[in-house]
């Protein structure tokens, strides 16, 4: 039954009282009986592995086909709407604008009063904006030529407008270096970084696993023997092979990105360098980076399950952080290509996070741990504040933080009763409050010895990306619904279009 034989290792504990029952009727003595149950598992895991991989592949193909069909439907609706809008533009009738049917507006006294009120309201709303923009322009003019950039000029132009359009966020589309630092650089950096991260991680974990097997002390690897299924040199083969799903879905995801790039209209093809005058910029490098990250998540999770421990756990969670960061940046990049986050700045910030995570595993002194966690929280809050302010001012802060922060603070106090962007201010405040709550939760629950920052970092990333995805889809639904679901239209064909659109939105 066991051709290769087996070994049973019994390690006596210094204090076994925790293993003994204290219920009534049980007598605790110095002599205890140990029961060993030997159970033979399957000789071959071929069937369950094939079934699992086949099921994952079928589901991936099915979902992929549904997404492709939704894209086909959306492209068809988009082309139809484009044709309708072109026809409508050729026969626009001037109906007199807002209030054309209101006789009271014909009264010159009423009109002059309305104009005075409107003028006063505009003056109050624009005084703050004009003063801020003028001071930023003065600062820009006084800079040396080496520090003047097109990016800063367009950032100031965006601040001048109370409402932004997509064209205001794509003014740098013609600058390939600016755009590629925020898109294409990711596909160069992510695979390279993950490869250099994977190789030493695999060497370290495998060496520790072999050392534990040869010494007979497998306590260094926190394996779940209750459900582990050994195969070959792997003691926990089932948990290792279960990560094949990451690889399958990673390759399928990249295949879907490639298929979509081929389905795009000719003027939106990525190789044409974004010559289209309408629609969002089609930048797919971040999508490919997500697919690569998903594949490496499978590899590094396999490494973790070979010899699970607090040290090897960081190899498993690192790519999770990276994927959440990429998703956040990509969603923001869809409508804000010019002010999306630079790949190099993102990677450097990510490396600082990994340093804090590693230090949390090796510092046990309470005072040092307190200093570490306080430092992490200060940097965490500073980063959240920077992100909120930069989004609020449409990327202006990134052009020269040391000069612009004092200008922003001065005008915020001078015009305390005015807000440039009310909705952005509200969402930014909610963003800060939620992250402050997470920060204090981490401080009070993760300060003890033996606890690392791995779980808190996952909580931070998961909470923020969930909130941002919900915010994005709610805004998209509000924006697009009147176009897809016109008020009073009860046509059955229109209802079918609405249903298909919302299904495609959910799939995307």
Word description of this protein:
By secondary structure, this protein is mainly α. Residues 91-111 and 115-121 have low confidence and may be disordered. The protein is built from 15 helices and no strands. The relative contact order is 0.09. The protein has helices spanning 46-89, 108-142, 150-160, 176-180, 184-215, 237-241, 244-263, 285-306, 310-335, 343-362, 366-392, 401-414, 422-445, 454-484, 492-507. Helices cover 65% and strands 0% of the residues. The longest helix has 44 residues, at 46-89.
Write the layout of secondary structure elements.
Elements: H1 46-89, H2 108-142, H3 150-160, H4 176-180, H5 184-215, H6 237-241, H7 244-263, H8 285-306, H9 310-335, H10 343-362, H11 366-392, H12 401-414, H13 422-445, H14 454-484, H15 492-507
Specify the structural class: mainly alpha
Radius of gyration, Cα only, in angstroms? 30 Å
Number of strands: 0
Helix content: 55-70%
Uncertain residue segments: 91-111, 115-121
Short synopsis of the structure:
With 508 residues, the protein is mostly helical. Helices cover 65% and strands 0% of the residues.
List keywords for this structure.
508 residues
